[in-house]
Write a structure and sequence with these properties.
With 528 residues, the protein is α/β, with parallel strands linked by helices. The chain has helices spanning 30-45, 66-71, 90-103, 135-145, 153-169, 173-187, 201-206, 234-239, 261-264, 268-271, 274-288, 305-314, 323-329, 345-349, 353-369, 410-415, 438-450, 491-496, 519-527; strands spanning 10-17, 54-58, 81-84, 109-116, 209-211, 214-215, 225-233, 247-255, 297-299, 339-340, 382-389, 393-401, 463-470, 474-481. The chain starts with 9 loop residues before the first strand and ends with a helix.
């Protein structure tokens, strides 16, 4: 195997977000949210949208190409724009893809944007005419823990993980309540937080029960909001003299459910994503060379207080079974071992699904720059991010500052205001043929280039061209050629004795008419 080229370093040079709000409280739509947030990130870095070569836009609730619609409010420059949906980890997933584009030398400057315009109340399924992606998770939970039709499913998944921890390690409901109390207290100093009220431990425990041991004040709300980050290469940082504000992304790793045991074991923690959080963290520590003990600040996915508690252990912030002791010592807040969720976390800051991971990144960038005012964590050298989505995906990142300096962004110097403590820093307010996807096209072209298309075979095919467009919009054009001349028979043809290019049942499977129209089929035809 040929040696791989060394991976390029990746830096965050601009971040921005808007205040998270109760759905419908503010009369604006996602294009405006995306515009304001994207511009804030660009101005934070002191660059123009014309410098951006690609964009990755995360959201869960919306039609296709909402990312384009939002970014077109900033500029229409023809760059590739990719829309990302990965449940509650959508924001960090968009961030990860942006990082990979820089790391793989596909671009020097990439914008990651996440937004969500949500409905009030608990989350529920939107498509009831097809398989729910959490069906196996729910079936496992119901088999081992039952199901309460009066409680939100997500609260039951994470609440059962908390119950399991209590059964195994003698954790108490008070431990979960202390986490919520901490996060509400932290949020009082965050101008972007949806809630900024401070509650006593008794008030947390006495609030309406959602699913025991979780009470309302231990559960994140639905939110409208947006956040963004500008990622660049090392050459870009130097070229634009951004060393004093550049934050290096030492690692950003994703893991999905790690084995079939998540669906077959009796572990509620595995159903809630403990295993994939642990795996993503392990990869992040290995690739960054940083250990949990070296981290000073963490933005952790506290959709429910129970998830924050079990994730302390998944991330290695404490030993398995000792999260309760960590909480009792105060080692998860100011004055302790590590400060977890100085922003207020999802519980108090809010949880607009597509924006959450990028809002975490934003807070950590500000913390590493040392500009967070009263909520600043002292002596931050390394920062840790954790964003999880059931279904599932967990993303864990490690960040550090390029070098010591004043930390003032270009936007701060321009407007005279610090975005980390002033959310208004920049003065802004905020047909049938079309359904054929590019994979079906690719499939057809592959078959054509292999010369196996029978009566529809184009003679003498040497090169093949693909075009796939979506209104909203994006256009993709590809050019293909065959490696070398030969019989063109695939392994599948030799195995089943049938030619897939002319027999759609060659492997004993059938597919609907719509399934046969995918872009891979087009590519397949051209290869044949």
């Amino acid at each position: 195997m040929a040696a791989q080229a060394p991976k390029r370093k990746v830096y965050v040079v601009g971040v921005g977000m808007i205040k998270f709000e109760k759905p419908g409280k503010r009369d604006w739509d996602y294009p405006k949210m995306g515009q304001v947030t994207g511009l804030r990130a660009l101005e934070d870095a002191g660059i123009n949208y014309t410098d951006v070569q690609q964009a990755y836009v995360g959201y869960c609730y919306g039609d296709s190409t909402c990312g384009q619609r939002a970014l077109y409010e900033i500029g229409i420059t023809g760059i590739p724009i990719f829309n990302v949906n990965n449940n509650c980890s959508t924001g960090a997933s968009a961030l990860l893809m942006a990082k990979q584009a820089i790391q793989g030398s596909l671009a020097d400057c990439v914008l990651a944007l996440g937004f969500e315009k949500m409905e009030r109340g608990s989350l529920g399924a939107k498509f009831n005419d097809r398989t729910n992606p959490l069906d196996k998770h729910m079936l496992n939970m119901m088999e081992h823990r039952g199901f309460n039709p009066k409680s939100p499913p997500a609260a039951q998944i994470f609440g059962n993980a908390g119950i399991e921890h209590m059964e195994k390690y003698k954790t108490t409901p008070t431990h979960f309540a202390k986490i919520a109390q901490k996060n509400h207290y932290h949020s009082r100093l965050n101008p972007y937080s949806q809630f900024r009220d401070v509650y006593s431990l008794d008030q947390i425990l006495a609030s309406r029960q959602v699913f025991s041991p979780l009470t309302m004040l231990q559960c994140c709300p639905t939110s409208d909001g947006a956040a963004a980050a500008v990622l660049v290469s090392e050459d870009f940082v130097v070229r634009h003299n951004l060393q004093s504000i550049a934050i290096e992304v030492l690692a950003l790793e994703m893991a999905t459910d790690v084995s079939d045991t998540v669906f077959t074991s009796n572990s509620s923690a595995l159903v809630a994503g403990y295993g994939m959080s642990q795996q993503a963290a392990k990869k992040a520590y290995e690739s960054s060379g940083v250990t949990p003990d070296q981290v000073q600040v963490v933005e952790l996915h506290d959709c429910f207080s129970a998830n924050e508690l079990i994730t302390y252990e998944a991330l290695g912030l404490c030993k398995e079974g000792t999260a309760g002791q960590m909480i009792d010592r105060g080692d998860n807040t100011y004055g302790g071992k590590v400060v977890v969720n100085p922003s207020g976390g999802l519980i108090s800051k809010g949880h607009p699904l597509g924006a959450t991971g990028l809002a975490q990144c934003t807070e950590l960038v500000w913390q590493l720059r040392g500009i967070c005012g009263e909520r600043q964590v002292k002596g931050v050298k390394y920062a840790l991010q954790h964003n999880i989505g059931l279904g599932g995906a967990a993303v864990v990142g490690v960040y550090k500052k390029w070098k010591d300096g004043e930390g003032k962004s270009v936007g701060w110097k321009k407007y005279g205001k610090n975005a980390a403590v002033d959310e208004n820093f920049d003065g802004r307010s905020g047909s049938e043929e079309e359904q054929k996807s590019g994979l079906a096209q690719c499939t057809e072209l592959v078959w054509q280039l292999r010369g196996i298309c029978g009566e529809r075979q184009v003679k003498g095919v040497k090169y093949a061209l693909q075009h796939n467009i979506g209104l909203g919009g994006a256009a993709v054009v590809g050019v293909y050629k065959k490696w070398k001349d030969g019989e063109g028979k695939s392994v599948g043809w030799k195995k089943y004795g049938k030619n897939a290019a002319v027999d759609e049942n060659f492997d004993g499977r059938s597919g609907s008419e719509e399934e046969q129209k995918s872009g891979l089929a087009q590519c397949t035809e051209l290869v044949w």
